[in-house]
């Protein structure tokens, strides 16, 4: 098992109302004085982008903030652009960033002078899941079919993914190590582009997050082969896990928010409170259930400890893959 899975927490609307009525005094000590930049360390159309824009709409519709939150994509260099932007804006309380697992891997793989422990942790909203997808026209219906097809392609099987050195390429490497197969990895700007390319037949497979491919599956254009989760998902009935098929493959994507370093306790508390109220909204809970996101809110020191733990875990995974290559 590659990472631990937080269990989904079901929270009712009554709790939302109670929390809103009892906002911490510290969170009321500071509020933004201008619109907040919601930086996304990925391109448009992917899971992180879709979530950030959903959060923007919930904040507006629920009246959670007086001033707007403005999504800004900075996905260059597998998120290096966004990470460096956060670093260069230390002390700026009008910027927050939606993270991916490249939050852990990119600083280690690039020379951008970023240490994630210097940033201000805000909240983990959920962990996202991964599935292996193919085009329905491929005729592939099982994992055995898939492995056979990739081996027959002799290195020319095209696996689409977001960037190089990011989560999709890591999952692809895990598949290659487990099944002794080889893909031609095709990096793209965002998860939306990857899913569309699979539908169009420009690539042969993806390991998209369900939210990025669910609509194409419902339209009968793509087929999920197996899930990288510890158990089946209610939103994807009938789709087996790699584990139940006999392969110890499990991987998740954290969906969190951080801010630049140097924020005051009151500034941090404002965002943590806002995101906690957002996490308990009916819109978010419904979306998460439909899109195979596993909600488990985490903030403060616990979140920073989680980040450090996950960074070390990814270092170990990358080192093990290098040893096998």
What does this structure look like?
- The protein is of the alpha/beta class and 325 residues long.
- It has 2 domains: 13-128 and 252-324, Bordetella uptake gene, domain 1 (D-Maltodextrin-Binding Protein, domain 2); 131-227, Periplasmic binding protein-like II (D-Maltodextrin-Binding Protein, domain 2), CATH 3.40.190.10.
- The chain is 41% helix and 18% strand.
- The chain contains 11 helices and 11 strands.
- The protein has a 6-stranded mixed sheet. It has a 5-stranded mixed sheet with strand order 7-6-8-5-9, sandwiched between helices.
- Strand 1, helix 2 (47-61) and strand 2 (69-73) form a beta-alpha-beta unit.
- The two termini are 20 Å apart.
Task: Write down the overall mean pLDDT.
Answer: 89
N→C terminal distance: 20 Å
What proportion of the residues form beta strands (DSSP E)? Answer: 15-25%
Total helical segments? 11
Q: What is the CATH level 1 assignment of the largest domain?
A: Alpha Beta
